[in-house]
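Lab channel / #folding
Pinned by the channel admin:
"Please post every new chain as: sequence first, then the structure tokens as a reply. Keep commentary short and put observations after the output so the thread stays searchable."

First post following the new format, from NK:
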Amino acid sequence: MKKTKAFPIASDIVLLLLAIGGAVWLFALGMPTVTWQTDRSLLPIVVDGSRLLILATAVGVVLGLVLAAVVRRGRDRVTDGDVIRYAWGERLVHWAVALGFVLAFITGAWLLRLFGLDTTVDGRPTLYVVHFVGAGLIVLAGGAFVLYSRVRGQDALFPRWGDVGPAIARLFGYLGTYGQPGVLGLRLRMVWLQDALAAVGIRPATREGKFLSVEKVLSFTPLAILSVIVVATGLVKAAHYFFAVPLDVLRWSTWLHDVSVWLTLIVVGLHLAAIFLVPRNWPGIRSMVTGRMRLDTVHEEFPAWADELGQREVVVPGREVPAHGTAGGD
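Reply from TO:
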């Protein structure tokens, strides 16, 4: 396990104290009294939901710090021919964020009356509550993931410059460019296109690690950036119920929040299309549900990761894993 240096840890502690202090301050100052009255029936829900959203951010930060301190993640291991690719906590964070975005987007679209949806006066309070529940799942799980990863120094999903070319090549591979099964099993092996891409430095990785270049560059990174923007602008929208947020800041935050949500929907749509339409990606569905992936798939698609497993001289039923993987890459 990599350890972080002193400055990143100190900065995380400062952010942690700010998040906790801010949440406590909001609760101490902002609790409405029983005599509080307003002619806007939804305002109490929005105010309380905003307060709980900020609190959920603080709880996520604390949870990530606690998990980093108490959870001991062992090395990847092989059991009955299966490799543990995702621990239960990683899967929980993934599905919590996914569920949060689904709830937040559907209720937001409903409240804005998009796609022909309409609301009734009686139904709007429920939509607002569910919207804040979705947002709360995102900031809670996201905050826990960020702090856990920062403190434990886990950065395998963060891309390097050398991942960009292989990531783009993998996209072209989904069209069957390199002769491997692409969308719906398509195989074209367009040598002329391979040569054109190679001329500008775009070629498949020879040995992919535990996380594919395309996962790091075109899936995790844009979704992480968009999630930060959605959460940050959402917190600004929430904070204006407690602080004097300038009108222009609130207006731009609202616009950026909405645009980021739509971009997130597009990225998620492409992500799902790559998973469900490309047969070679189907094992990833099982791994995100059960956490497990077949060892032969690891050797075929993630040879560098297979090397790491092979160096531990793991023996599986009917097969001895060599000290170094022998499978080819993309």
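NK: The beta strands are 78-79, 82-84, 292-294, 315-316, 319-320.
TO: also worth noting, Residues 163-199 form one domain.
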